[in-house]
Design goal:
This protein is α/β, with parallel strands linked by helices. It has a domain of about 230 residues: Spore Coat Polysaccharide Biosynthesis Protein SpsA, Chain A. Helices cover about 30% and strands about 15% of the residues. The protein has nine helices and eleven strands. Strands 1, 2, 3, 4, 6, 8, 10 and 11 form an eight-stranded mixed sheet that branches. The protein has a three-stranded mixed sheet with strand order 5-9-7. α3 runs parallel beside α4. The radius of gyration is 25 Å and the shape is globular. The termini are far apart. The structure holds 6-aminohexyl-uridine-C1,5'-diphosphate and manganese (II) ion. 6-aminohexyl-uridine-C1,5'-diphosphate binds next to β2. It is an enzyme of class 2 (transferase). Responsible for the synthesis of complex-type N-linked oligosaccharides in many glycoproteins as well as the carbohydrate moieties of glycolipids. It comes from Poecilia mexicana.
Amino acid sequence: MLKKFFILLVCLAAFSLGGFCVILFFTEDRKLFFFSALNRETKPEESAEPTVRPNPTESPGRSLDPCPDVPPNLRGVLHVEFRTNRTLQDVRNHVGPLIQQGGRYRPTSCRAKQKVAVIVPFRNRSQHLNHWLYYLHPVLMRQQLDYGVYVINQDGDGAFNRAKLMNIGFNESLKEYDYDCFVFSDVDLVPLDDRNLYRCSDHPRHLSVAVDKFNFILPYATIFGGVTALSKQQFLKVNGFSNTFWGWGGEDDDLSQRLSYRGMFISRPDSVTGRYKMIKHGRDSHNDPNPNSVQKLTETYLNMDTDGINSLSYTVREIRKDLLYTFVTVDVQAPAG
Ligand code: UDH
Ligand code: MN
């Protein structure tokens, strides 16, 4: 009886050893797969630095599994304050080594579902940009996005044109990478909850739902300013933004109307997830309220097919790569006067 049991035990041991050898042999890299599995577990996405830095110009590794729908390392409500004076170097140190030149990043442990260009319209707001970069990069990384940050800087002191800068950002970012989602963000808006994902959905998405400046209330139902996300397809379906809104106001409502004329709806996070803090500021010079915008908003339907991405004209003055962003200085051909 005891002998039979012993023989059975030996057989079982031999069988499992054989199985182990077979698994070992077929493991892709033929390393002790046991140890590589352990290694993987002790290297969570955000806490470990990859030994090999991914090259963002290459296409994302096909062998990686897709990232989960809900990123695992989100924190929820964030503490945000703008009293601290932050230099660009402070921000570079804070954001850490995972970022790639030009403000590029993609997760190393999974394949991001979307390739997101974050477009920031800009002129003379360096301190705001430092705060924005300080808070946004860690959020975007935790959201496991394959993303790049493009700051589109209007050259000269002609009338500001936020919408045209957005169109230029769309155009210029696509020259670098095959982005499929575009987040357009003012430089002074920082999310207060990282569950507000900077990615695109079935309908154009308005992310800055509850801004402190508006007492955390959505001012009106069709508002589409601040921070928005549109897929490449959604953006092209409306011919992008209008290029002809000079000065402050109207361009965001024009885009909102374009979306509705093309049968799209605005999607939004709930008003808790969609909370934002705006850096306090006055009106910038050369960005006075546009007196023509009310009239122009009655003509959206007539103009949208001929005023937009298909009529965009500008000159790139300089493209400068910082570690934290790609800075594109452009002449937007502002009207004289
Ligand atoms: N922007 C610049 N530079 C400028 C003007 C605008 O970078 O000179 C960009 C920047 O990204 C900014 C965005 O365009 O966040 C929108 O402009 P804004 O911040 O002036 O727009 P907002 O809706 O304007 O915040 C509110 C007017 C503030 C007056 C407050 C008086 N209490
Ligand atoms: Mn603002």
